[in-house]
Amino acid sequence: MDVIVINGGKALSGTVAASGSKNAALPLLFASLLAEGEHRFDNVPRLKDIDSTELLLNHLNCKTHRTGHQLAVTVKAPEDPVAPYEIVRKMRASILCLGPLLARYGKAKVSLPGGCAIGSRPINLHIEPLQQLGAHIEIENGYVIAEAKRLVGERIVFDFATVGGTENIMMAASLCRGTTVLENVAREPEIVDLACCLRGMGAQIEGEGTSVITIEGVNELKPAQHSVIPDRIEAGTLLLAAAITGGDVKVVQCVPADLHALINKLSDCGFEIETGPDWVQIKACHQWQSIDIDTAPHPGFPTDLQAQFMALMTQASGASVITEKIFENRFMHVQELARMGANISQETQVAVVHGNKGGLSGAPVMATDLRASACLILAGLATAGETVVSRIYHLDRGYENLETKLAGLGAQIERRSA
Ligand code: EPZ
């Protein structure tokens, strides 16, 4: 199993480009199931989760061909629209094939995704709206078994602005008969990117990026030709890597507007941030203030940057109260940071980080989930001495060559086979 070895304490500097967004690419690839033929996606990041998605699409009678960051998907009708447990268990986002398969073929059998390290990850907000659109759904032997002659448009109000639930229902509603109005939907940039792709396929959809999306169902969609938006979470992680090392870094090929919550918090801590049309630059700062954050649906502070921001707060002046309001168990990085000398007290959804500049020391630590991996790498960058991060298969799910990008900014970091 690979490990990442860091000898930190050096300020990062230079320019680095963000890759395409994992959390945009996954629903986009599943949207291809809505139309048979040749789809082409550009700016697709090279990640384990994309590999898992290709595996599932291949299982569903689709051919995939990758050339660099371009991914071509040739969709044909599956003999049997089934997403089996052995594939779904590798990536919970596989549940996003449910809406497209049901809408296109009138039936789908998809393994329940199960929970993961950060929470139980239920899918009731995927299932109930599909039932409102007329699907008959049973849960049997760990599978969601769904049937519908033709889904019929409805007004649906989500109990919570679920990202995946919004995506699944947007895709299903695109082929409904009649009009679907979705209220209290997620407003993430990845939702907007999916709507743009669906519109390019012939879907009649409006309101994306607001809390209400209206979709006029059509009888048929055509293959997608779409370029994936930049990954705002990777871009934010790179900015936080610069911040925690007292560095001066420009992140290019990103969307500053998608990073407003983080940029505002970094400015409030005392960092000087400049932005351009497709770049964000953070200037060196040698002592920053602690600040509180509550994670929230977009445009609030993203839960996917909570762990990385916590690493920054371990080096701040003062105490920071971090409240995780999206997932029930997204503080597993706290114990690992504590092993490096961080002073953090935690009660269920609230962690209080007592900042102590220079208080971290290199140590062997274990990644527990994707964003915790990034958090521990950032902590390692902040402190002299050697930090060894194990179980970095978590990291490879969602970051494309992160260690190479950081080394390009002057970090002493490398991947080793343990
Ligand atoms: C997406 O997950 C992202 N994943 C997550 O990124 C991200 O953290 C999350 O949105 C929130 O922004 C992808 O896009 C592939 P949700 P998703 O449905 O869709 C509860 C990363 O690190 N909920 O908005 O699963 C759920 O338990 C990953 O890149 C229900 O109760 O998130 C959670 O508490 C991690 N019932 C909250 O809503 C449901 O049916 C947010 O879930 C669905 C969700």
Strand content is: 25-35%
> Ions, cofactors, ligands: which are bound?
ligand EPZ
Provide the gyration radius in Å: 21 Å
| Main β-sheet description | 4 strands, mixed
Helical fraction equals 25-40%
Judging from the principal axes of the Cα atoms, what is the shape? elongated
Which strands sit side by side, in order, in the main sheet? 22-23-1-24
Oligomer: single chain
Structural class: alpha/beta
| Number of strand segments | 24
Which regions have little confidence, pLDDT < 50, spanning 5+ residues? none
Number of helices: 14
* Average predicted local confidence, pLDDT: 97
Separation of termini?
6 Å
Describe the 3D structure.
- The chain has 418 residues and is of the alpha/beta class.
- The protein has 14 helices and 24 strands.
- Strands 22-23-1-24 form a 4-stranded mixed β-sheet. A 4-stranded mixed β-sheet has the order 2-15-17-16, covered by helices on one side. It has a 4-stranded mixed β-sheet with strand order 4-5-3-14, covered by helices on one side.
- The chain is elongated, with a radius of gyration of 21 Å.
- The chain starts with a strand and ends with a strand.
- Bound molecules: ligand EPZ.
- Ligand EPZ is lined by residues 22-23, 26, 93, 119, 121-126, 160, 162-165, 303-304, 326-327, 370-371, 398.
